[in-house]
Write a structure and sequence with these properties.
Length: 574
Amino acid sequence: MCGILGILGIRGDITAWRALAVKLANRIRHRGPDGMGVVVIEEDDGTFNILVHQRLSIVDISEEGRQPFVNPDNQNVHFVVNGEIFNFPQLREVYEAKGSKFHGHSDSQIVGVLYNHHGQQLVDHLDGMWTFILYDKSKKTFLAARDHVGIIPLYFGTNKDGVRFICSELKGIHDVCDANVQILLPGNYITNDWTPREWYNPAWYNMDLIPTNRCKLEELNAALTEAVREELMSDVPFGFLISGGVDSSLISSIAVRLLKEGKAAMPERGMSEIHSFCIGLEGSPDLEASRKVAESIGTTHHEFVFTVEEGIDAIPEVIYHVESYNPTTIRASTPMYLMARRIKALGIKMVLTGEGADEIFGGYLYFHKAPNKEELHKETVRKVRDLYKFDLLRANKSTMAWGLEVRPPFLNKRFIEYAMSIDPTDKWVKSMPKPIEKCVMRAAFDTPENPYLPNEVLWRQKEQFSDGVGYKWVDGIKAHAEKLVSEADWTNRATIYPINTPTSKEMFLFRRIFESHFPSQDSVLTVPFNLSIACSTAAAIEWDESFKKNTDESGRAVLGIHNQAETIKDTQQH
């Protein structure tokens, strides 16, 4: 994973614009601390374009993996890529047979090869987590695109002279664009007409189409195992994030099995042992559970303990890096940000994690209240499509702040399409033999004769990351906000922040910090804003009357379901 920047349709002094491009790209240098590449593409009419790449070398760490790339089969095509193309080995075999040239084994070069054969439709052939910017000098056209669910971020905007900017993060371009910075949505691309178009439109997007394929446990097990195998592609040391919940623990267990079976060769990656990581407050639920997992699967485990005070100290940096003021995002991003720094210091560049399982399988505690399987399925569709706003933004930006890449195998394109085709009867708690969320997923890996996980972890109740690191963390943030946000400011919150008016003092504090970094209205509007119960969409609040009174995003807000359920003061009454 890396950081990319494109500036297109420029007129003026090349030297000055190149200097500006480098300055802007250096704002995202944390995404690519291993090197920077710049290319200036001049046109006959006096205009020019600049592509910049900040490199985090993970696949093909040689000089042949340096970007920007020039297509060896078409010297007019220049491009920069951020992310990983997991089906690169298969694609390379196909297109080498057709005569395409490759240098080294960087997976990113396949973007140029596919462009030669398919033009803009190249995006349909990519499986992975990626964004890219491509410029074709012969046609004077560009193409920028984002992966199927938005695992990797991308922003775009223009200045008053019509110069176009595209960047991996908001901070790279927010103050050079004139009030029109936007997020390129997942599964979308943009070209010369500057109108985003959807390239990814799977059958499961249609919420009126309720799947009827009953889940076969063996198929589910095989599909997730294959997704994990694909995403172990790396030339550098990697590890696993284990929160102690079933999602990240399963990914880690599957990966360790694959490594021990020789399906990923550790010595080639400079690894002599398998590392796993967890963070929490002293005595937190996640630390205890992750320790059991690590002992069970045989990883060298690292526990990082932080204090509420250390987390609060980091919040301003976290808000700058994740570019959000959403409370759940900041609550969960802060321990992840602290952990990522410690992991990178150990020489690890890539980790696998469990993001996406709750959205796909209805794993959040509020799903217990789904009135029927149809509503459950529709909510999973909404949740998966919204992942880029919350969990994926947090997982990507809080770790890439330190140059650490996070890969979520549950969001592998083929696995999503398989899992979203499962009859929601098999995801609905009320139809399961055990009254626990994600029952079918747990059952697929419940193999007592050769267990993947300890039974108490495999069947552990869902804990949201911001809760699992220690309940005092969320409570401490709220107490901190109470001290820093005056009653006068709180009373006048609608005047101070007329757009996306904060609904709690915690959000007010986060918003104030956010606007110190990103003051424009367009920047504010890049952050999602809606009521939620334990990470639900706004639509699911209608499932239960108690949801309307307890609109806090902590899992503990789901009264009667969470083992540590508590009544949280109505955020609308603060």
